[in-house]
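Reviewer 2 asked us to include a model.

Predict the structure of this chain.
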Amino acid sequence: MNRKRFLYAMGVAPFAATLRLSAAGPAIQVFKTPSCGCCGGWVQHLKANGFQVTVNDVQDTAPVRKKYGVPDAMQSCHTAMVEGYAIEGHVPAADIQRLLKEKPKAKGLAAPGMPATSPGMDMEHGDAWDVMMFDAAGKATVYKHYAAK
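Predicted model (structure tokens):
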């Protein structure tokens, strides 16, 4: 290797590594039961959309929901935490990214139940459903509406 190439490689490589690290998406911790296939589908959806996912298999997600303040009416099959927000159920990555960009005063987002056409469920047809934003008091408002397919 000639000197010019060597110096270029030594100067650019650390900078390129820094760019790769800063381009990594948000870190999200997912709590799910080991046997839940749709939860695994949602995890893959998050990874495909740039999230850095850590999966925690738990026997029961109810204590996790309670710990992070997810209202009972918002419950689904898995709970996640990202930048201080609770994410309950099959919330699309785009809605989580919007939440992180806007940073509203909220406890988190939820896709109550298991909407058929949500990420991880991936059914071709299903009823309309909503992603709900909820606060610490449990009050929820529609964050994003998804039409029936």
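Helices lie at 3-22, 37-48, 62-67, 93-102. The radius of gyration is 19 Å. We have added this to the supplementary material.
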